[in-house]
Design goal:
There is one protein chain. By secondary structure, the protein is mainly β. The protein has no helices and eleven strands. The strands form two sheets. Strands 2, 4, 5, 6, 9, 10 and 11 form a seven-stranded mixed β-sheet that branches. The mean pLDDT is 97.
């Protein structure tokens, strides 16, 4: 079955950086666009960005444009989310998604 496993979350100070990874298995990874989302308790899950199958094009939400970068390595079935200039309001659980499948999420906490 399809499995997505996020990693790389943690605690960082405002202005710092983190790189999240999402390792996929159980599907032909290079055949799918990949997306990143985040969720704060009590709020809807927020779309952050996506990357097409080849990795040659990306799309970002305004809230993270210019600070976050999505990349993928189709040889390793992995997608990354590089997060720079982090703000306390970026604190959330971060999820990757492919098709209808979600990872379990990884917590990112940004301290002020």
């Amino acid at each position: 079955q399809v499995q997505l496993v996020e990693s790389g979350g943690g605690l960082v100070q405002a202005g710092g950086s983190l790189r999240l990874s999402c390792a996929a298995s159980g599907l032909t990874f290079s055949s799918y666009a990949m997306g990143w989302f985040r969720q704060v308790p009590g709020k809807e899950r927020e779309f952050l960005g996506a990357i097409i199958r080849s990795g040659s094009s990306t799309l970002y939400a305004d809230s993270v444009k210019g600070r976050f970068t999505i990349s993928r390595d189709n040889a390793k079935n992995t997608v990354h989310l590089q997060m720079n200039s982090l703000k306390p309001e970026d604190t959330a659980v971060y999820y990757c998604k492919v098709h209808i499948y979600w990872g379990q999420g990884t917590q990112v906490t940004v301290s002020s």
